[in-house]
Amino acid sequence: MNLKGTDLPTRESISIRSAIPVLLAAALLLLSGCAFTTGHVDLAYQPTTQATKLAAPDSPHVSVVVTDKRPTQVVGQKINGFGMKTADIVSNTDVPGTLKSAFETELNSRGFTEGVGGDVVSVSLSNFENQFTLGFFSGDSTATIGMQVTVKRPDGTVAYNKYITGESKDWIEVAREGNAEHMLNAAMQDGVSKVFADSTFIDSLKKS
Questions:
Q1: How far apart are CA 35 and CA 37, in angstroms?
Q2: Contact 128, 174 (CB under 8 A)
Q3: CA distances (Å), origin 178, targets 129, 136, 141, 196
Q4: What is the pLDDT along the chain (208 residues), one digit of tens a residue?
Q5: Whole-angstrom Cα distance, residue 113 to residue 60?
């Protein structure tokens, strides 16, 4: 009787320990999604609402040029339940074109007029990607964007030059392209918002 009584806690401990890998495997499977097929995202920029008109009546025209300096066109990678990369995530939409449209939209909403012969907002995109990381029962999706933003006068002088980063991060249950798309769009919005929140950038566009 004593032997049986002392065996009971041991058997329960073994049972609990054996259940942990099963629970972990289930959680990792949930995170995997369709891990082995190429993922596609559709990028879109959500404009700032109720932007204040900041351009002066004599502010020069402005044009936007975006140069894609990223080492790869891939914007992320899927991972399986063990954290291994299994498939690329690519964008169906033109990334530099979407970023250019974002800058033009924000400039127009602040009263600046597009046109040649004035200031040039030059954006060099060096990084734009989403990364998935695993936790025990859930993971994280983190998207980042990095871009060098320069304002040049018609005579070639530089009025503004700064490297801007944007980021968006949230927890996920499935490491799939839909989560990557949401984070990438939010990171782009964060980066562009930081540029237009910089008074030095706005002031450089007001003066000829």
A1: 6
A2: no
A3: 14, 21, 11, 28
A4: 444 444 445 545 445 555 444 444 444 444 444 567 899 999 999 998 788 999 988 899 999 999 999 999 999 998 877 778 889 999 999 999 999 999 999 999 999 999 999 999 999 999 999 998 876 556 888 999 999 999 999 999 999 999 999 999 986 766 677 889 999 999 999 999 999 999 999 999 987 6
A5: 8
